[in-house]
Amino acid sequence: MAQASRFSQLSPARQALVRLCQTINHGHIEALRISNGEPTFTPEPTVLLDVKLDQDEGPRPEVALRDFELCGELRRLMSRMDRIRDGKVGGPARNTRRSPAEPFLNPP
Questions:
Q1: CA distance 69 to 32
Q2: Which of 14, 54, 55, 77 could be stapled to 10 by a disulfide with Cβ–Cβ 3.0 to 4.6 Å?
Q3: pTM of this prediction?
Q4: Which of 78, 70, 69, 95 has the alpha carbon at shortest distance from 38?
Q5: In this structure, what DSSP letter does residue 52 have?
Q6: Helix count and strand count (H, E) for the chain
Q7: Helix, strand, or coil (residue 91)
Q8: What is the CA radius of gyration of the chain?
Q9: What pLDDT digit, counting tens, does each position of 65-88 carry?
Q10: Bridge partners for 33 per DSSP
Q11: What is the mean pLDDT of residues 13-40?
């Protein structure tokens, strides 16, 4: 598949993934399934948001644009999906552990 450099050159499924990434802004997607090189959203992937308390988080400016040049990170993601063809991408970007909030809310 030829490397797309603009949003408008992507399939509708890939455009949906880019829009999801823009909406997340800071965070990552876990367990995104790839079928025939295209992202699928059934079952839904898990979206984890990183909340930045020390800065205002406005929407990304690209969200309002109908077309724009894809950044290198998105082009690499599209290339990776082309290579995977069928499988799953995304997972914790760092060593994380899920824990209930209770011990933190009521320390001993």
A1: 23
A2: 14
A3: 0.78
A4: 78
A5: -
A6: 3, 5
A7: coil
A8: 16
A9: 999 999 999 999 999 999 999 998
A10: 40, 88
A11: 91
